[in-house]
Structures are given as C-alpha cells and as structure tokens.
C-alpha cells in the first residue's frame, strides 16, 4: 500500500501529526502496536489519567477548606474503585473517539510493531503488511527506565506503567524520584489519605535546571505542610517484600516499611528494534535519534518527533515537532524544532509552570538579567478563590527588554503561562506585557504586574514570594 | 497643598492610577469619600465580593459531582453567615492593605467629596482642604440606576448596593435584569439552594451586542438545567410587600410571590455635584464626561477614567484608562483609550469571556468573516476536570487573517481570553495562534485548534458547540 506519509506510533505526537498531515492534504497511514495503545503513554499511562486523579486530589483539598464559603460537609469517604473506573472511562473515551475519528476521515491504522525496511518502507509486524511512503515519521515514544535491580512486580513495587492497575489505596507508600511524576503522585496519594514518603537523590525536588530553585522550594514547603515526608539527598539501596510489606533500605541508613513503592525515575527512548540501524538512521550515545531543526533524521525521507529526539519528553513537544516535520515535508522552512521555548507544567500541590530560561541559566549565558516577581498573596482573584499562594517570576534581558523566561507557581499556572509563551514566540518585550490589558479581578493581572516590576522596580500590592 | 496630580476617586481606576503615577515619579494625592469606600464599587460592592460568592457556588457545583473522583460526601449544610463573614474579610483585607501601602509609599488620601474648584484645584468637602495640582484625574465611578419607582428598601427589595448586607438566604427570589450581574447572582443563589426567577426584558440573557448570541444561549441552557427559572421578554410592572412577601406583577400577567427581589439593572456615572459645570468640563447627553483618546477632558489639565467616560463600566477599563491619562500627562502618546478591545468576563454557571467583535458585528462592519469554533466537549484537560462544556470561538478577517474577536465559554475562560487579548493587541494574526505551542493536556489547546480551524476548516476532535 502506498501513502504520502506513514507515521510509526499513534501517541500524542503521532496522532496530532496525522491530523495535521491530513489537513495539509497528505495521504497518511498510522502504525501502532495495538488498539489498546492508541494515544500512547500520555493518554493511557501518563498525563491524562494522572491529571484526572490530580483533579480529584485538588477537589479534596478544596473540600477541606469549603467551610470558608459557608458550606459545611458532614465528612466524606474515599473509594479508589470509582476513582479508577471514572478515570479509565475518560481514557477509553478519548482513545475510542480518536479511532472513530481517524476512520471517519479515512486514515487507516495498522496494528503491530512498525519496522523500517528501507528509506520508504515500513513493515508492520503482526499485520504483516508493507507500507510504502514518500515520507516516514517516527513517533515511537519512550518506556519506563529501570533503576538498577529495582523493577515493578505489579503488586508491591510499581512503576508508572503498572501503577494504573491499583485498585485500593495503600496505607503507606514510598515514591522514588522527586521529579515531575514523583511530586504529582505524592500530592495525589497524600490528598487521598495515604502516608507518603518521597525520596529524591538530589538536594531538591524538581531537580531539573529548567525549574527555578524557588519554584521547587515553594512546592516542597506545601507538600510538607500537607504531610508528605520528603527525603532529599537520599537514595534507595535495596528493597525486599516480606509478608505483604516492602522493606526499603535508604542511603541514610534508615529502613522504611511501606505497603507500596512507586518508581518514578525517568524514561528511555523507544529506538531499538525498529530498524533504525538497518537503514542508517543515526542515534546519539544516549539512544536518541539525531534530527536537524526540521526533525529530519540522517535519512532524508525519515523524520522523528517526540520522546525519541531528546530528553525533553513532553507530549506537546512531540505534537509540535510532528507539525515541524510535516511542514518541512511540504517544503516549508518557517517552523523549527525548538527545545528551548517549550513550556513545562508540573501538576502537584501547585501547578508549577516554566518556559524559557531561569535566572541562573540566563546569567550563565551572559545576560544582564532583570527579574520581576509578583506574589499571588494579595491578588484579589486568588484571594476570592482561596488560593492566594504562589508567584509569577519574569526573567528579562536588561539590555534588550526581551523576555528570557517565565516561571509561575500557583492556581492555573499551566494555562496562564501560555500568555507568556505567545508573547515570547512573537518576540515581544516585557514592556508589551506591562502595557497590555488584564481583566480585574484576574490571576492574569500578576503577569502584567511582574512585567511592570521589571521596568519600574518592586512597587505593587504584592510582597516578594 | 500642591501636587503633580490629584486623583478624585480611589476605586479600581483611581488607585491603580495612583500607583502608576507614583512609579512614574509624580507626586500624587488621592481623594475618596470615606475610609470605608476606598477600593470603590468593584472592591466593596462589586466584582470582589461577588467573585468570592461565585467561587463558593462553583465549589458547591463541583461538590455535587465529586463522587466521580471517588469522594463521597455525607451531605452538607449551608450557612450564609460564615460565607458573608469570610467574603467581607477578603474585602476589608484588600482595602486595608491598599491604605497601608499608600501610606507606606507616601501617597496621602483625603477623605470627603472632591469638587473641582478651578482647572488646577480640587476642594475636598469634609476635610475642608484645597489641593492644587498640575493635573487632575477624575475617577468617580458610578452608582446603581433605579428602575422607575422600584427602589431598594434594604430588606425585601435590594439593589447591588444593599444586597451585601443580606444575612440569610431567601427561599425564593426574583432577579430583575439578565445582564452580567443578574446571571452571576442567579448562579450564586441557585447553587446555595435558593429558588431563583430571572426576569429579562430582552429576548435573551446577556443582551449586550458585544456578547455573541451563542454564548448567551449556551449559558442560558446551563442556568435552566441548574433550575434557574428564566423569563425572557418579560418586565416587572409592579411590586408590593405584604406580610414579609414580595408580590411581583410581571408583564405577561403572571404574579410571583418571593422573599426577595434583586434589581440588577445597570448603573449611571457619578458626574454630578463634582464641579464639572463650574470649570467647563463637557459631558454628553447621557452624563458621561467627554474625553479624547488620551482620556483628556475639554479642560486640558483635567482627565477622566472609568465608569464616567462610557457605558463600558469595567474595573480594568478604568485601570487602563488611568494609565493612558498619566502617560499623556508625561508627554507620551503611545497608550490610547480603546473601548473596542476591552475584554469582558461574566462569571456565572460558566465563565463567559469576550474580546473584540462578534461575528455579527464584524459582518455589519463589512468584513468577510471566517470563524473557528472548537468545543471543550472532547478537550482532554476539560474532561479530566469534569468540565468539558463550552467552546472557543475565534472571529477572523478572511482577507488579512487579523483576529477581530474571540469569545470563550467554559472553564477558566476569564484567564484564557488574555492569550488572545495580547495577540490581538500585538497585531498578530490567527495563523500565529495556530502555530504557537500549547501544553498537553491544557484548556489552552482549544485556542490553537480554533485558529487552525480558521485556516484548514473544521477538523479536530471536537464537534461544533
């Protein structure tokens, strides 16, 4: 069968790319392991189900303060079974919607492992078909990394693949890894009444250099206040299951006895067993596919997007790179891969959003940096909503006025950051943000105030975070 | 006493202007009726307390569906007293913060009515002082309009000034006026268990031409579903209080018996008794102060901002105009008054946000209009949050690709709209929004999808709203 484009992998990147390619007039086919994996990790075992549970956790937190609004609940019971059922229903609905929609617009999905046979052919194992195409887009995603000997047993020790099958809340759990996934699960389980120990080998949670230390520290304080037991500079030495309990030996010599361990320690790209080597698609030492700024690999007809192109494993990065690749296939060169301006959102006890450089990164790059920081403590909308915590931090180049980065912690940070994403991508300066219009009362006002602080110094209602 | 600038009115516009003027190096004084009215209508009897109650209503709605997240509350009781106390505490906190802050940075507040004595003098009644200044900024705001004979009695019949003193929920109430204020109160009281009748004289709620009919209808359906009894094309003929009940005779011949009537029928500008006529500041027939695009009145040293300059009585419009006025005082001409691109947010059973032109307005102005509409029904983040209702509607000029308007109904519409506000103000086109980056999953994605629809037609997960 012949196509303009065959996309290997129907995760976030693959399916967004297939819709875009279809829109742009290309004849597209999708290859995906099985009908149950359409949507990839994000949909089936990642952002979508975790955001569902995180919203539940957020609602429990709101419920615990609802008396401030004259509502007095007479207690509540928790039930993971219905949480899980409703969560899984959302996942299945999105997955089935997508399959139906692909069928409706005439995009075939071939099930099985897609293997590159030559620069214009994908062999689909399982379906046993060969798909010919002018272009191939690899969007095969990533898999959970293991941590030495520590592996999911699907019962007492879980990774972020197996945790979704959990049918009851543990009483006490230990999470290994204080990155984005670790802090999200810590918040979720804690709000659902679980005693949570969060173990992180580095000296702070969210140890990525893209997240300012202030954001990490602010979140850490809140998690602790909610009762999460955070252990920094600590690693897991060994784990053993005895009589239904997990005995975890930590690097500080302590032993913790828990009902469940969750490993949240990163992912590795799926770049093996798909024929890359056979046709000469180059990889780097870490196993990522090498691509140019149009997401084109060393074989010109083969493109790649998402988790297999760099350590920045975010669904929207993949979705964007899919568009970059397809635009380039169509002869356009204005869209480019751009890891630097990809926004990153962490959903935990706060939403923690970052785009661009931190203050430290900007200084390391030689910028003379000005920073505007506005706290939500005195933001009227945040006060009305009972969520006046967090801040907006805007990092600006003193010389040019260009916005180098923005870091928001607090309510709706994950949506608010888009204002700055657009403005940065348009090359507009901080002054533009200070002179734009913000509705009153709104959380967005803090963005304009932070921009004004850059120009006029720290005068506003707000204290520094 | 001599100042660079005297601002008459310490409402949203006045106090934002005073901070901005201070930042820009001007020596400023504020004049306000009394210590209790600092913050103006928005803070004391408008957006701030109403948004507090609206958040409570929203939480009750969430609570009614929280079982989907495995949380089973054992019922709840309602208590307006603690709602009111906590609401008023937020208002007082913001007011006192502001006064303390003004004192801290050396801005004096003179209490009493400010009256223009000449083009550079404000006489403060009550304080009995004369303030001399190079410039005067009038920010005196507006007052509730009356509806013929119908007036607040502070007990059975309330307006939006007196309603805040209410200490108990009525069993059954009737709201006169289906505009922004009417639909907000209808939602609030309905969620707190009150039987609400909403009477609107026009053939739709939110009758302003700036709000698309689709937004109004979508909100109307939800209010009805929640049990609000909406009566369109209906007016109140008469009202009488007998034995603690209000008998309301409607234009359709029906009589309703309720515990409380709320009049939500608009406001009139405070432009009388402040000396405008004495020094020759011109007003229009409706009583608004005439200003040029720099908010300067017919007397060059006197500026005006906010509710007294036009029917668009929004706090942020006033805050923006204050900045426009001060920039002009400083000799700058790049900031201009601009009623057209002021975003409008309604907080009711949904957030309803609008900026720029509706489809109808754009067609009336002769544009060849393209519209992109994306529903939240299939937005993954909205599904995770259990709020997958509403839509983004983007109105674009086919010829230029310029964005003419954007109308969002649904979760967080009031924050999301700012993305489009910035992009419109920067003169960026719809194509820019379609090519920007949106995190996944996010509500913001719908904005990018609506922009893509404009270019490529309606293909996406979403159905039309």
Automatic annotation (TrEMBL), chains A, B:
EC number(s) given by UniProt: 1.8.1.4
Cofactor annotation remark: Binds 1 FAD per subunit.
FAD/NAD(P)-binding domain segment(s): 3-322
Compartments where found: Cytoplasm
Reactions this protein catalyses: N(6)-[(R)-dihydrolipoyl]-L-lysyl-[protein] + NAD(+) = N(6)-[(R)-lipoyl]-L-lysyl-[protein] + NADH + H(+)
Keyword terms of this UniProt record: Cytoplasm, Disulfide bond, FAD, Flavoprotein, NAD, Nucleotide-binding, Oxidoreductase, Redox-active center
UniProt-listed Gene3D superfamilies: 3.30.390.30, FAD/NAD(P)-binding domain
Any one Gene Ontology cellular component term annotated for this protein: cytoplasm
GO molecular function: dihydrolipoyl dehydrogenase (NADH) activity; flavin adenine dinucleotide binding
Pfam family, one: Pyr_redox_dim
Signal peptide: none
Essential cofactor(s): FAD
Pyridine nucleotide-disulphide oxidoreductase dimerisation domain segment(s): 342-450
Primary enzyme class: oxidoreductase
Major localisation: cytoplasm
Residues that bind FAD: 51, 114, 140-142, 307, 313-316
Keyword presence, Cytoplasm: yes
Active site: 440 (proton acceptor)
Residues that hold NAD(+) according to the record: 177-184, 200, 266
Disulfide bridge map: 42-47
Note: The active site is a redox-active disulfide bond.
NCBIfam families in the cross-refs: lipoamide_DH
Family indicated by similarity: Belongs to the class-I pyridine nucleotide-disulfide oxidoreductase family.
Protein name: Dihydrolipoyl dehydrogenase
Species in which this protein is naturally found: Thermocrinis minervae
Lineage: Bacteria, Pseudomonadati, Aquificota, Aquificia, Aquificales
């Amino acid at each position: 069968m012949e196509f303009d484009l065959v996309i290997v992998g129907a995760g976030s990147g693959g399916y967004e790319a297939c819709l875009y390619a279809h829109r742009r007039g290309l004849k597209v086919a999708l290859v995906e392991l099985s009908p149950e994996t359409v949507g990839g990790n994000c949909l089936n075992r990642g952002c979508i189900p975790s955001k569902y549970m995180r919203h539940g956790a957020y609602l429990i937190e709101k419920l615990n303060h609802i008396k401030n609004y004259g509502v007095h609940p007479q207690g509540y019971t928790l039930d993971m079974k219905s949480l899980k059922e409703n969560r899984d229903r959302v996942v299945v609905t999105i997955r089935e919607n997508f399959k139906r929609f692909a069928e409706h617009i005439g995009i075939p999905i071939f099930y099985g492992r897609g293997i590159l046979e030559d620069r214009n052919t994908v062999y689909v194992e399982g379906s046993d078909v060969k798909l010919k195409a002018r272009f191939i887009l690899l969007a095969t995603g990533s898999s959970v990394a293991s941590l030495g000997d520590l592996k999911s047993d699907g019962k007492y020790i879980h990774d972020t693949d197996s945790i979704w099958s959990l049918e009851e809340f543990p009483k006490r759990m230990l999470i290994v890894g204080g990155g984005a996934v670790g802090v999200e699960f810590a918040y979720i389980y804690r709000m659902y009444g679980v005693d949570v120990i969060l173990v992180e080998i580095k000296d702070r949670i969210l140890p990525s250099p893209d997240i300012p230390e202030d954001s990490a520290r602010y979140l850490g304080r809140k998690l602790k206040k909610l009762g999460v037991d955070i252990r920094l500079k600590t690693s897991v030495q060994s784990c053993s299951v005895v009589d239904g309990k997990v005995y975890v030996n930590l690097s500080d010599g302590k032993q913790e006895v828990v009902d469940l361990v969750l490993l949240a320690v990163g992912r590795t790209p799926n770049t093996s067993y798909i024929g890359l080597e056979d046709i000469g698609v180059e990889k780097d030492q870490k196993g990522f596919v090498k691509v140019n700024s149009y997401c084109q690999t060393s074989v010109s007809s083969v493109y790649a997007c998402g988790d297999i192109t760099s350590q920045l494993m975010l669904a929207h990065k993949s979705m964007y790179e899919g568009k970059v690749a397809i635009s380039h296939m169509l002869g356009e060169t204005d869209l480019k891969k751009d890891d630097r301006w990809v926004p990153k959102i962490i959903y935990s006890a706060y939403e923690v959003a970052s785009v661009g450089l931190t203050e430290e990164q900007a200084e390391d790059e030689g910028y003379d940096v000005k920073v505007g920081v506005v706290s939500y403590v005195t933001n009227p909308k945040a006060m009305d909503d009972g969520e006046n915590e967090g801040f907006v931090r805007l990092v600006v180049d003193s010389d040019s006025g260009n916005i180098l980065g923005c870091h928001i912690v607090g309510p709706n940070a994950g949506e608010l950051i888009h204002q700055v994403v657009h403005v940065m991508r348009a090359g507009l300066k901080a002054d533009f943000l200070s002179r734009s219009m913000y509705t009153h009362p709104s959380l967005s006002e803090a963005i304009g105030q932070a921009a004004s602080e850059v120009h006029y110094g720290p005068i506003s209602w707000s204290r520094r975070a």
